[in-house]
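Researcher: Let's do a round of design. I'm pasting the structure tokens now; please hold your answer until I've finished.
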């Protein structure tokens, strides 16, 4: 960070390019495009599907999405002109199961937005094959699951584009930041243009977006796509280049904590915890109350907070129950019973790559005392 400050060059430049190269190399993709957040990474991915050869036909405007995810899984698709088609999740993995995605495919389907929730990969290879069989694009929102693997391959690398976040509470941190990875040169160049105003400045003279004139002055401000300003800072790129070196150790620490968490929760059959699919990178630990009629989530959450345990909803719960839905185009909603259960009876606690034995002792004691009183 001090080297960047001393250089006097703060906006997107060589440090960002170095991070993009290191990040894509680590995950085995050809290209990485850094942006100022994971939400922006999703915005670039969704918009790229409108301004590339991956764009669907006019009659196809629906994108299949899971009912449980963060808001900026959905907003970028809506902002890119797509209609959201919500499907229910599996209560054990918290991801949209393959059969729900398959049954939602229709004549209007343009693509699938896969979400790997709380570090847990979806059935990514099978979803990729399903998308290919129906000529659909596939985006992976992997912002919570950096370092997860499915069938030995990194989550976030199965889709046409995969998105990652380096927000300060995520696996690696650049304070704010995101990366969109792809093996498509065209998609990488489209996202590069969209990231900074939709101009051609960062592109080679001959590219998949719009060839430059060759006149350096004229090409400074040549706008060819309706883009954004999602540029990251050089400090974020510099931090990211160091953080990439630590990914393996960070994910390993989180997995060790997950082993401890599962041992603790073996004493509490009153809860459903997330079932690992593939190799999760364990963003956090979810708990869903099995019999909420016995005692309420609000009572437990209050007790946990009093004992110093930070508690959050499971991402945004059933997102369709948010008032913002009136502003989002979507297909008719079907019943979403599992998403409702998560919404009403679920919560999650955080993870870290540091050892958390004392925290797990506190969790065990808190749950034990609460359940004894509740019974």
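Researcher: That's everything. Go ahead.
Model: Designed sequence:
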């Amino acid at each position: 960070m001090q080297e960047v400050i001393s250089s006097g060059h703060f906006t997107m430049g060589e440090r960002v390019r170095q991070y993009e190269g290191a990040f894509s190399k680590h995950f085995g993709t050809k290209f990485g495009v850094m942006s100022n957040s994971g939400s922006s990474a999703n915005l670039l991915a969704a918009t790229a599907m409108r301004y590339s050869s991956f764009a669907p036909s006019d009659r196809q405007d629906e994108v299949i999405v899971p009912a449980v995810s963060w808001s900026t899984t959905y907003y970028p698709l809506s902002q890119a002109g797509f209609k959201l088609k919500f499907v229910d999740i599996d209560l054990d993995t918290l991801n949209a199961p393959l059969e729900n995605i398959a049954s939602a495919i229709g004549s209007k389907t343009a693509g699938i937005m896969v979400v790997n929730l709380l570090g847990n990969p979806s059935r990514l290879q099978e979803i990729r094959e399903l998308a290919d069989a129906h000529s659909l694009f596939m985006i992976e929102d992997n912002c919570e699951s950096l370092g997860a693997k499915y069938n030995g391959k990194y989550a976030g690398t199965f889709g046409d584009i995969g998105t990652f976040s380096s927000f300060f509470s995520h696996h690696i941190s650049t304070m704010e930041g995101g990366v969109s990875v792809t093996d498509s040169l065209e998609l990488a160049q489209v996202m590069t243009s969209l990231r900074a105003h939709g101009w051609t400045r960062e592109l080679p003279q001959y590219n998949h977006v719009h060839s430059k004139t060759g006149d350096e002055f004229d090409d400074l401000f040549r706008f060819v796509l309706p883009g954004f300003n999602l540029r990251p800072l050089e400090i974020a790129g510099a931090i990211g280049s160091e953080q990439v070196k630590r990914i393996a150790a960070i994910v390993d620490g989180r997995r060790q904590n997950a082993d401890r968490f599962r041992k603790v929760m073996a004493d509490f059959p009153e809860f459903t915890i997330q079932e690992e699919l593939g190799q999760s990178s364990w963003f956090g630990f979810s708990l869903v109350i099995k019999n909420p009629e016995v005692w309420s989530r609000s009572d437990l959450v209050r007790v946990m907070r009093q004992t110093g345990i930070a508690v959050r909803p499971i991402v945004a719960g059933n997102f369709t129950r948010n008032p913002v839905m009136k502003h989002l185009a979507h297909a008719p909603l079907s019943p979403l019973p599992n998403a409702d259960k998560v919404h009403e009876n679920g919560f999650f606690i955080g993870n870290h790559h540091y050892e958390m034995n004392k925290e797990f002792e506190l969790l065990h004691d808190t749950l034990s005392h609460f359940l004894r009183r509740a019974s």
